[in-house]
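Allow me, if you will, to draw on your knowledge of protein folds for a short while. I have a record of one protein: its chain in single-letter code and its fold written as discrete structure tokens. Kindly check, if you would, that the fold set down in the tokens agrees with what the sequence suggests. Thank you for your consideration; the sequence and its tokens are set out here:
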Amino acid sequence: MNNYKIKYMNRIYKFFHIIFSIVLVSGFNLPATGNDTNIGLQQYIQPEDTSISELTGIVKDADTKDPIAFAHVVLTGTNIGTVSNTDGRFLLKIPTSRMDGQITVTSLGYKNLTLTITELQRIGNEIQLEMIRYPIKEVIIRNVTPYDLIRMAKEKIPENYGETPVMFTAFYRETIKQNRNYVAVSEAVFDVYKGPYSKFSDADRIKIFKGRKSQDVSRMDTVMFKLQGGPYNLFVLDIAKHFDKLFGPDYFDYYTFWFEGEVNVQDRESYVVAFNQKPDVRLPLYTGKIYIDIETIAISGIDFSISEYGIEYAPATMIIKKPIGMKVEIPEANYIVKYRYINNRWFLTYARSEALFRCKWNRKLFRSLYTTVSEMAITDMDLSGIVKFPYRETTRSGDIFSEIVSDFEDPEFWGDYNIIRPEISIEEATRRLSRRLQRR
């Protein structure tokens, strides 16, 4: 590979890598998707009615009875919703005045299911979704290769995602776990200026509105491990905005692409294009699946990981510094991005990243496995009232979110509204905190 390509690839990694540093001053930034044990990622829209009822349950595959991770559970006709965790479990908080309404449950590749709330129990509901599979239609793809389809999707990005900016409200949460213990839990609500997809130079701007972190977590031993970049990193995962960061023209040929059929996404048919880096490419590239809407040729979602061929090269680009005498391996790094089709336009709606780091001192028995998860849900959007925040007020790639979030704490803000609810041990650690998002 020539020097130009090496420099180009290193620049690309800046947008997807995990920055990791240990001891005293440390920073760590990641993108991924994987095995978080949260009850569910909740969407935060302040209801007018302050009386709240809870609905809990599990989403399963109707045939296999396996849990369905990251299924959307939404109060029909509203922006109030949640996302199931990797065990399929969810918790949805609903204004009491809306308990005579319906919920809609959706997941990639499954039929949408709408249920009347009065049919359900308050706790322990088991919701089963039926899978949809479509054979590839020869007449549609006879003369189209997966390479052609991806290039078509890229060309239609301005048309599908918009040439005008939009304002988002989003909820963000990051956790760091050392072995089985959580050692950091931080979360925030923030406002987002989402730049147009036709103008890469008009970058997204993220401004923290309210935030908090838990002090009731285990202390790190021997090492200090932090996540750098925070919510900034998840917006960089917006593949439709940063397409060339994943499939840039200088290294498109480093991948193999193939069709894997069709699935249902939001009651719309989508092609599934799988990809993997070629075995002889010695770079930390990716493997995964891209979902391309058949009607609009838009990327409706992507699920990808660092490939088995590239994982051994990942530490060189993902770790910014570490102590002398420590060996760090990265067993896996995973990423999820989802979009939602609203009024003939696709919008970013969800992003998640997870990475694992195995640390071991030379000639010592000490070793630790760190698991980091960042997760974000877009909870509200506004096509008017566009406010482009001053750059000095925004979060940046070098920020360590857990260290700045305390500047945005407001105990009066958080109330009994939809939340990310982590596994029991973390729930106990953070149970004194509740949350509320007031629309401004």
In short: The domain at 40-129 is CATH 2.60.40.1120 (Immunoglobulin-like). The longest helix spans residues 3-13.
